[in-house]
């Protein structure tokens, strides 16, 4: 089950990454729909009653996706850059959008000025919608390689990530 795939990740890592994307993307879409839905009928409610649930779920799930983006970088993106392989434009766009989403999500959590929060909110939503569309393009797109062989000769597979030795703990 932990065989390394074309992406350079094991099946478990891929499943975790796609599950995190599905959960974070789903909660984000729910937040977007609720944000632009008609105001609640209750005169004392500022947001729809389910809004806090979706917001908390999104904020709690997003760090898992950021962690898995780091795994993806180590196993898929980094080896491709080091091997000098031809990169797809959609992959570079995903890298840029990931940075924008992480930075704007962080800014949204820590900003107190309402104008700044609105700017982060719009930037985060636009980057997220672009991320979802670009992910589809990236998955469906075909890599331009010579003779179906990548620069490393592994039929499109990423070179294996270098093994990092785990140093033993030497407590006091």
Question: Count of DSSP helices?
Answer: 4
User: Could you give the order of the helices and strands?
Assistant: HHHH
Shape designation? elongated
Low-confidence stretches: 144-155
Rg, alpha carbons:
20 Å
* Overall number of structural domains: 1
> What's the average pLDDT?
80
Strand content range: under 5%
Task: Give the fraction of residues assigned to helices.
Answer: 55-70%
Tell me the total number of β-strands.
Answer: 0
Main beta sheet: strand number and arrangement?
none
Structural class, by secondary structure, is mainly alpha
Measured between the Cα atoms of the first and last residue, the distance is 39 Å
Structure report:
The chain is mainly alpha-helical. Helix content is 62%, strand content 0%. It is elongated, with a radius of gyration of 20 Å. The model is unreliable at 144-155 (pLDDT under 50).
Question: Secondary structure elements and their pairing?
Answer:
Blueprint: H1 11-35, H2 51-83, H3 89-110, H4 114-140
Helix pairs in contact: 1-2, 3-4
Summarize the structure.
This protein is mostly helical.
List keywords for this structure.
single chain; 172 residues; mainly alpha; 4 helices; elongated
